[in-house]
Amino acid sequence: MRVVVDLARCQSYGQCVFAAPEVFELTGPEVLEYDSAPSDHLREQAERARAACPVQAITIGPAAGPTRDATAAPPRSAAIDTVGGQR
Amino acid sequence: MEVGVEHRLSPTSTAAGLPDDGHVVIVGASLAGLHGAEALREQGFAGQITLVGEEPHPPYDRPPLSKRVLAGRMSADDTGLPQREDFEAQWRLGTAAVSLDRAAKTVTLADGDVLGFDKLLIATGARARPWPKVHEAALGGVFSIRTRDDARALQARLATRPRRVLVIGAGFVGSEAASVCRELGLDVTVVERSPAPLVGALGGPAGSAAGRLQRRHGVDLRTNTSVRSLEGDGVGRLRRAALSDGDILDVDVAIVALGAVRNVEWLAGSALSVDGRGVRCDAYCRAVDSAGQPDDDVLVAGDIARWPHPLFDGELLAVEHWDNAVRQARVAAVTMLHGPVLQHTALPAFWSNQFGVNIKSVGVPARADQFAVVQGSVENSAFVAAYGQQGRVIGALAVNMPRALDAYATMITNRASFPPVARIPDAPDPIRVLDTALPPLGQAAPDAGRPQPDEQRAGARPSL
Amino acid sequence: MSDHIPTTARSLVDLAASTPQQDLFARVLDQRSRPNPYPLYAALRRQPVSRQADGTWVVSGYDEIAALLHDPRISSDMRNAGQESAPGAEKSFILRDPPSHDRLRGAVMARFTPAVVESLRADVRRITGELLDAAGSQGRIDLVDEVAYPLPVSVICKLLGIPPEDEARFHVWADTLARSLDRDPDMTQEEADQIQHAADALADYLTQFTAERAKNPGEDLISGLLTGGAHTEPLRGDELVVTTRLLLIAGHETTVNLITNGMLTLLRHPDILTRFRREPALVVPMVEELVRYEPSVQFRYRATLDDIDVGGTTIPGGSAVVLLLAAGSRDPHHFDQPEQFIPDRTPNEHFGFGGGIHYCVGAPLARLEAHVVLPELVRRLENPRLAEDPPPYRPTAALRGPRHLWLNVDRVRP
């Protein structure tokens, strides 16, 4: 399960924090943080948050991509040398 | 929601020449590409969709990279974006597109494959602007924050508790990185050529407030300053940085946060209107060719697009924001299916969290020449500021007042006059109008060598 | 406004269509419109911002309401529209503007945490179970008096730390004071006196109670408000009394209506009721749809501090404005099939809990209660049928809900 919040829409009403306290948290008076890959047992909470969001900014779904396992892609390390974009 | 708008499109809209069994190629498998594909499926497109991505990873979310991931509260691997539903698509990840032939309607990939398309969505976005001196950029300990791999590597390095982190550039990414460093208890020096942080996007007065916030959190902020050189030790690890103020800093880590470079090189032979600022398109997201004509079959969305926004005439708008990537890709999908019936008119909107503060903006503050705090107080770190240009409200900033911003979006759309004159209970009295170009901290240093100042003036916030 | 108001949907639509725009809101306030005000709302939306005969401006379109909910030139203090408030009465934060609104609301929010709300879940379950057990012997139950009404008062008393033996008095006060949230022009002097009497009695009780809590603080919300927090000042005296009173009234009537309207709506949609029995998790999106489709709070009053352009109309400064939230939540420009009850509607960006800086503080608790109670009602009530439809309604138009909801049931399952 993957969660993403459109934080341009989000107005920090905090309803998601009540609905799913193990997924969403306010780390400052208006600063929302969330677990974007909560474990499956938190699905019910996360769905409650999605429904409760006053601006409907929460999307929940399977990880996008060719497989459901987003970690399948080979990791690459190094920093600056991966910066190069389209050549 | 824009989905609703799309559903309300008249069924009599002229079909745009995309056959039911046609092939849509989306180059760029990040936020815009994903939403373009989703929107096509949501609107019933049953043909083939191929997503081409240079990175090996499926679409992931960039904003957490410079915040939660860097702070070690979230794994870089957990940034994968959700998709609304399962949708059928071919994924070509780890393979860059290298050229576009519009006449043949083909895209050539780095591995030599040639993909034919009926419609193409260009969504290759941008990459981090590297440190210009190649041998210095290659030093161990010099990082960017654009990709998931960048963030993973930098987080691992920060976790080893370097003595001092140098952040080069106090735009949003640099400021967020500095915020994380302070949160981790690391000493951090931020070097910024402008007179204040965030000044390119938000102007002098707001930048000045941002600077005070950084210093209050223990950041060694050097404005009107640049990095002359980065120096390594015998085995190629960063050890020192020489600053334009004459200081030599002992640093183990440098974070290069100088904005972004559009990934346009692969379009060199396409005869589209392309330059370093992006790909020109119309409000329906159709790419404009070098003769100024829109190409019905080549669409553009996300960080790489530059388009005429009906509210902000004159210069083309290029917006490196999350929200824009999503909305613009969805408009592009509508154009593919229905032709030019829906314009991309969403107001630019961005957000940032740094130093415990929520920052949101709407409109184009970077283009404004006037600024006024209209609600709350800067001293309490809770305020709304309106931005004006030629007597009109064109942007607004909300710091720790996210629920206040919608009213100003309405004012921008309604071309309300600036300064907004109103009796507002929590307005400062009197409302003071300031010049956004005011050098807030003394005289600005000469700006020679500043990377792409036009881009900073365009307020293009790196979409991290 | 004394002519007959019909009750069939068709004739209501005809009536709404033939009523002059400027008289529509007076019809909304008319008690006889209570069972189905929605055709009137649809008629009002033809002109999303419209001036009524008495000078009040009614805003009924989604976009227009959304704009005003977020507009800093909109005041919740009706003195700004020339309306008197009760002499000497301290105002609760829903009738205030920033900055004092923010201070008082912030004090409550600081104590009304996710952990506090979650800690009430077990109480909500237990109380619901007890109430249904008590209703168990009869074939006919009044959902209002036997379940929906007692539950929220008990929960709020628990939250506030009110001893169980005093709860009965709170039930009476809450009932009476709910009317004070409604600016009903038909209110008699006798009713006004009753409200004042209840307010005084509650104030006396709370003054004594808070004085006692100040000496012996507990884990409850009132003790928390007395102590203050890291970023909030302690509340004292009148501020504490009116804040507590607000939590009692606003948190009570709205929840009664949510539960009752919920069951009423389900019984009017047997196919959805059947699906809900199979699929109890449906309650999560369904509660959002309930507060869109049959919201407890139908409208709120505001005052303009300045001339405001909205929806192509200019509302002059100093005007009284009705934000007709329930009409906005059925605006066809924002919702597909707005008159349909679609339990898993997505997205559902409704005004069921308001919006902007006054967004319902108690929304998380209301959701929790509905999430617990509705599946439990459906599980335990065997073959429930409406004894009368429409049911009798309470007088208030702003906080709209049935006075009784008589159900015939084969039995109440254990």
TrEMBL record, chain A:
A Pfam family: Fer4_15
Keyword Magnesium among UniProt keywords: no
Gene3D superfamilies linked: 3.30.70.20
Cofactor list: [3Fe-4S] cluster
Keywords: 3Fe-4S, Electron transport, Iron, Iron-sulfur, Metal-binding, Transport
InterPro entries: Fe-S_cluster_ET
Disordered: region residues: 62-87
SUPFAM superfamilies tied to this protein: 4Fe-4S ferredoxins
Domain of life: Bacteria
Database matches in PANTHER family: FERREDOXIN
Record protein name field: Ferredoxin
Organism annotation: Streptomyces silvisoli
